[in-house]
Fold this sequence. Notes:
This protein has 136 residues and is an all-alpha fold. Helix content is 81%, strand content 0%.
Amino acid sequence: MKITTTLLSALLASSLMGNVTEQSKLASDMRSMLSSIVDMQRAGFYSNKAGVIDATERLVNSLDSLITADPKLYLPKDQKNAGQFAKKREKMIKLYATDLIASVRAGDVQEAIEDYSQILRQCTSCHSRIRNRVWK
Length: 136
């Protein structure tokens, strides 16, 4: 009986640790995404094409958590469609990021600014819906 209890406790602890690890990876990736967005803007202000491209590529490389993380593990039950919503935002961010890189390489500043704005809209849309935070 003692062995069964010990094994059950270990199994439960490892499954809980997996959820914490997944959520902490998502949080880390979100911080990386924010850093990339800030770096994109900073590089754009200084007309640093290589900086914009590098920051955009870092943003895209951080997006996988939006697909792999299971929102049911850390969001309220009323957010049942959050996973699909986040996956759609991830696809749209990749689309605009790819276009942003092409616009920067082509020297099309207006299109690059529009692509950057669309990326910000995708981020804001997801955060305002899923995180459901109200400004005070």
